Amino acid sequence: MQPPVDERHWEVAGEHLTSRLILGSGGFADLPTFSAALAASGADMVTVAMRRIEQAPPGLLEAITAAGARVLPNTAGCYTAAAAVTTAQLAREALDTNWVKLEVIGHEQTLLPDPIGTLEAARTLVADGFQVFPYTSDDSILARQLEEAGCVAVMPLGSPIGSGLGILNPHAISLLREAVTVPVVLDAGIGTASDAALALELGCDAILAATAISRSEQPVEMARAFRLAVEAGWLAAGAGRVPRRRYANASTPDAGRPDLGPGTAA
Amino acid sequence: MEPTNGVPRITVVVNGAPRDVSDGATILDVARLCGLDDDERGVAIAHGGAVVPRAVWAEVPVSADDVVEVVRATAGG
């Protein structure tokens, strides 16, 4: 018998995920801190990168597996579609997964995605049997094209990778959310827990955070804050916020005000 | 390369550095040269820019000046 499905969970590429927080594994001081943060975060999916073995100490994969989380390999550092495709294929071989967070970077200072290269690589990878999660700009037209190319999710940035600037254009994220039917995972730029809550309130299905947790002063505490923030944001999105008003609108009724002098009676 | 102990040697480029292997060496030999355990998870190898499936590491020979990349899943993203 299958366990009851918690409505707070979500699905992507036909798989069930229990947390709307995807943890990026980059930037942690050491493996024990990462493992403690992973446990505190509640995340059940963690990104990893592929690097030459001299720069890639073993142990991370075992830590992720021990926590019961799945891996989402990325193509970080690729500046061409061809490099990203080969990196994805290396990750598939190494990790026995056809899921890939596709990154085709366009500029080394901003790390903004190359939209043309990203779409090109996405098409190639989908044709090669990958489940593609593209890191993309907050452009809803491009997001729709990525969905049409067969991507299983889209991962728009809130602001440049590692900048901690938060979601600079919430309206664009909201429009993007409406433009696609696949899950939207807010990726990049998140600075603190309230940014994560905002992403969920804007309709995103999940968020990915690395730097905001790993390079905070207390990564394990921040991981817990993010766990609570994604749940709070998701609940708020479902509960429906009040409309914004130009002027005040008292929640306390005027009717029945006592007469306590001139101008006070209702 | 000059033969060493009667076995001809060739140089291949592994992760950007020249490495001396015996003529006739395979991708599996290169993997072992890099210290990989035969059953290690999370690693993969590209040869001339194309992924070599682990199942055929022992069957794919390397030639002089071939470029081999040996990668492992690590922290990132």
Question: Descriptors for this entry?
Answer:
heterodimer, A: alpha/beta, TIM Barrel, five-stranded parallel beta sheet, 15% strand, B: 77 residues, mainly beta, Ubiquitin-like (UB roll), five-stranded mixed beta sheet, 1 helix, 9% helix
In short:
The complex is a heterodimer of chains A (266) and B (77). Chain A has 266 residues and is of the alpha/beta class.
Q: Kindly identify the CATH topology of chain B.
A: Ubiquitin-like (UB roll)
Order of helices and strands of chain A: EEEHEHEHEHEHEHEHEHH
Rounded average pLDDT of chain B: 90
- Please indicate the percent range of residues of chain A in DSSP E strands (runs of 2 or more): 15-25%
The structural class of chain A is alpha/beta
- Based on the coordinates given, report the CATH architecture of chain A: Alpha-Beta Barrel
Shape summary of chain A = globular
What structural class results from the helix and strand content of chain B?
Answer: mainly beta
How would you explain this protein's 3D organization?
The complex is a heterodimer of chains A (266) and B (77). Chain A is an alpha/beta fold and 266 residues long. Helices cover 37% and strands 15% of the residues of chain A. Chain A has nine helices and ten strands. Chain A has helices at 31-41, 60-66, 81-95, 115-127, 140-148, 170-179, 193-201, 211-214, 219-239, and strands spanning 10-12, 15-17, 21-24, 45-52, 70-73, 99-102, 131-136, 155-156, 185-187, 206-209. In chain A, the strands form three sheets. A five-stranded parallel β-sheet of chain A has the order 5-4-3-10-9. With 77 residues, chain B is mainly beta. In chain B, 9% of the residues lie in helices and 36% in strands. The chains are: A alpha/beta (266), B mainly beta (77). The interface between A and B is medium-sized, with 37 and 26 residues.
